[in-house]
Amino acid sequence: MTTKTTKKPISPLALEEAKDAVTKLKSIKPFLTPADEETLGILIDKELVSNLSKSLIEAKLGKYEPVL
Fold it and tell me: 25-62, pLDDT tens digit by residue?
């Protein structure tokens, strides 16, 4: 029995774009105000929690493995 971990193949281009986005965020960090940093952190955390919650629900339904 195999376990599905994703609905569709992940494109190497998508991974490269994600890597570039992280690099850009790191490079602009010195120019952000504390309020900007906090807002960005909240937005990223909110997205992460949403993705983790969805993954756990799918795992309970037997659709996919959790990403944890």
Answer: 889 989 999 999 999 999 989 998 998 888 888 888 88
Q: Tokens 């504390």 label which residue?
A: 34
For CA atoms 40, 41, 42, 45, give the dihedral sign. positive
Burial (CB count within 10 angstroms: exposed 0-12, middle 13-18, buried 19+), residue 56: middle
SS3 14: helix
Residue corresponding to tokens 């195999």: 2
CB atoms inside a 10 Å sphere around CB 54: 13
pLDDT above 70 for 9: no
- Percent of the chain as helix, strand, coil, to the nearest 5: 70, 0, 30
Domain ranges of the chain: 33-68
